Amino acid sequence: MSHRHYRYPMPGMPRGVRHPPPPSPFIHRPAPPPVKQKEYEDEQMVPDGAKDVQNISHLQFVRMFVSGRLAFPAEYKEPAKEYSFGYEDLQDLGFIGQGNFGRVTKMKHVQSQKEMAVKRVRIITDQGEEGESLSLKRLRNEVETIKNASDCLEIVRLYGVTYHEGDCLLCMEFMDISLDKLYKTVHTIMHQRFDESIIGFIVISILRALNHLKSCQQIIHRDVKPSNILLNTRGQIKLCDFGISGYLVDSIARTKEVGCRPYMAPERLMASTSYDVRSDVWSLGITLIEIATGQFPYQNIYELSIFKQLEVIVLGDPPFLRNNDIYSQSTVNFVNQCVVKDVKLRPDYTYLMGTDFYKRYANEQEADSYVRGYVENVLAYCLSQE
């Protein structure tokens, strides 16, 4: 780092003298401005509507929301409530799983008896400044995206943020089961086919969530997969894990955050410098094929090297859902539209939300009760096998 050299004029210095005489130790010299500590840089492209936060560091941004307050919205005839809280007010109920960039634990807020999913994100890492910057950037993405999507019922809620022993704790809405665990239980333990109507309701919720991110925040999720789709016994289906979400500029994403490679669209794996929301449509299609068939569409892909994975997805034929009388032609057609390999021919959210398949399930009046019953049956079966 280069340092600027300051020259301070001395009292009574004659004109024409270019350099002042050596200062007397008794003459006060103003101190040079302090060198500011290097702040973490945000590499995300921020749209004009967010210029108020684009120039602050990731850590400063997160601290804006660490107010020691836990806010629960009004729901199910319960009024909105707010509490002062810290880590000592939380009761650990056990490990849930590993998120995209943090460990997730089930915890209870003792005073309200509210159960939450708490994601613990390590701020200080052993990976140096670059690793800490990446961790903070993903943390900021998560906080900012969920906070701004609080009016979208298909996105998990954020209740509050606090710190504990160098970790940042994101206290979020607790959901009963991930789609990943749900479909594996149905196929491998219950030995049943995955319910076609549940596939339809998943499509409705996830497209609504993705479209909300795009239309209201100009954000693309970039990590759609079964483990990031959650369900509960209230019949709700929600999208979570926004650590690698990114801003769209003129509807185009230009940053290269890495998601789960096997779910990534071919255009994201190629040398192309940009992609759009249709890459998330591909990921949704891969997810739907996986839950419908009970296995990942690219068989044994996790056993392949990274370069072989790229070759299979980019150069190979796209997967598709077969019409084998298990699912209706309407469902098969919708799913296969999502995995059209040529991004120019692949539909976007607007097109998919205008299909007869989407309209059929979007207009279903008993969707919540149907999903609730299905989730309760699967959870009950899991308990009976323990």
Notes on the structure:
The protein starts with 57 loop residues before the first helix and ends with a helix. It has a 5-stranded antiparallel sheet with strand order 3-4-5-7-6, with helices on one face. A 3-stranded antiparallel sheet has the order 8-10-11. The protein is of the alpha+beta class and 386 residues long. The protein is built from 11 helices and 12 strands. α4 packs antiparallel against α6, α4 crosses α10 and α6 packs across α8. The protein is 33% helix and 15% strand. This is mitogen-activated protein kinase kinase. It is an enzyme of class 2 (transferase). Its EC number is 2.7.12.2. Residues 1-24 are annotated as: Disordered. Keywords: ATP-binding, Kinase, Nucleotide-binding, Serine/threonine-protein kinase, Transferase.
